[in-house]
């Protein structure tokens, strides 16, 4: 019998990509902005319906931009001991990842794309989401970074307290959690614009201890949600291709 060494996963950062374009002839992605605060149940039902329609070829791909009332969501990898304070409603999200917080001042973008029209490569899709966020942050002269062992986008805080090994402090500014059904993606990203950062204290965000969270406002960038949305759309089109607006009142 021939023995083979155990296979190890390729480094996550090798999946870096700044383009995740659809095949020629695909219709533009529908860009939907829900006004006001959208309940999690409402957003989840809308995602489920749209994903089914996309999978059946009955609807265009879409990005849904929402703000939620304060709540926590638990991904499929959530651990009970990461819920520190049940101060807000907790929803089972069905996406990958652990606990995360959503609330006013945070832009949540649910990204509903058909990977059969693009690349059937989930790791490359996640990398493209990170590239999208990093490009948007750069518009504010903020350097967002990826990490090999941590999905999401991070900001170095050299003014913060260093770890015992001398490493520079860093905070998470954007979280990513996705699910794929019939090669259609849903859930997506959350970018901290100006949320109440104390609301994150009820959980261990994304199951990661030893690091904090930050926001555009915390970094000194005071900007309105429509301004953020405009830059998100601009950079989305660079990474993922054309979009068309479809504003829906909430």
TrEMBL record:
Catalytic activity: octanoyl-[ACP] + L-lysyl-[protein] = N(6)-octanoyl-L-lysyl-[protein] + holo-[ACP] + H(+)
PANTHER family given in the database record: LIPOYLTRANSFERASE 2, MITOCHONDRIAL-RELATED, OCTANOYLTRANSFERASE
One function term, GO molecular function aspect: lipoyl(octanoyl) transferase activity
Annotated protein name in UniProt: Octanoyltransferase
Enzyme class: transferase
Superkingdom of source: Bacteria
Function: Catalyzes the transfer of endogenously produced octanoic acid from octanoyl-acyl-carrier-protein onto the lipoyl domains of lipoate-dependent enzymes. Lipoyl-ACP can also act as a substrate although octanoyl-ACP is likely to be the physiological substrate.
Transmembrane spans: none
Pathway: Protein modification; protein lipoylation via endogenous pathway; protein N(6)-(lipoyl)lysine from octanoyl-[acyl-carrier-protein]: step 1/2
Chain positions of site Lowers pKa of active site Cys: 172
Similarity-based family: Belongs to the LipB family.
Subcellular location: Cytoplasm
Residues annotated to bind substrate: 95-102, 175-177, 188-190
Active-site residues per Swiss-Prot or TrEMBL entry: 206 (acyl-thioester intermediate)
Pfam families reported for this sequence: LplA-B_cat
Major localization class: cytoplasm
Protein EC: 2.3.1.181
Any further remark recorded for this protein: In the reaction, the free carboxyl group of octanoic acid is attached via an amide linkage to the epsilon-amino group of a specific lysine residue of lipoyl domains of lipoate-dependent enzymes.
Alphabetized UniProt keyword annotations: Acyltransferase, Cytoplasm, Transferase
Domain BPL/LPL catalytic: start-end pairs: 57-244
């Amino acid at each position: 019998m021939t023995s083979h060494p155990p296979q190890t996963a390729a480094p996550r950062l090798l999946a870096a990509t700044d383009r995740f374009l659809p095949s020629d002839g695909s219709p533009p992605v529908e860009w939907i902005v829900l006004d006001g605060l959208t309940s999690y149940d409402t957003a989840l039902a809308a995602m489920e319906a749209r994903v089914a329609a996309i999978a059946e070829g009955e609807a265009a791909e879409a990005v849904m931009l929402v703000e939620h009332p304060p709540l926590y969501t638990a991904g499929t990898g959530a651990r009970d001991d990461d819920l520190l304070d049940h101060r807000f409603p907790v929803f089972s999200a069905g996406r990958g990842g652990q606990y995360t917080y959503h609330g006013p001042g945070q832009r949540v973008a649910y990204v509903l794309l058909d990977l059969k029209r693009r690349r059937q490569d989930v790791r490359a899709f996640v990398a493209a989401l990170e590239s999208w966020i990093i490009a948007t942050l750069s518009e504010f002269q903020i350097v967002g970074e990826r990490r090999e062992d941590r999905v999401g986008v991070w900001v170095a805080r050299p003014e913060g307290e260093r770890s015992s090994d001398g490493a520079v402090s860093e905070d998470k500014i954007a979280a990513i959690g996705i699910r794929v059904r019939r090669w259609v993606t849903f859930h997506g990203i959350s970018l901290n614009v100006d949320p109440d950062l104390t609301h994150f204290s009820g959980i261990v965000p994304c199951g990661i201890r030893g690091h904090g969270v930050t926001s555009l406002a915390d970094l000194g960038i005071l900007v309105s949600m429509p301004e953020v949305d405009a830059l998100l759309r601009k950079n989305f089109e660079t990474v993922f291709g054309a979009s068309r607006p479809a504003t829906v009142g909430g």
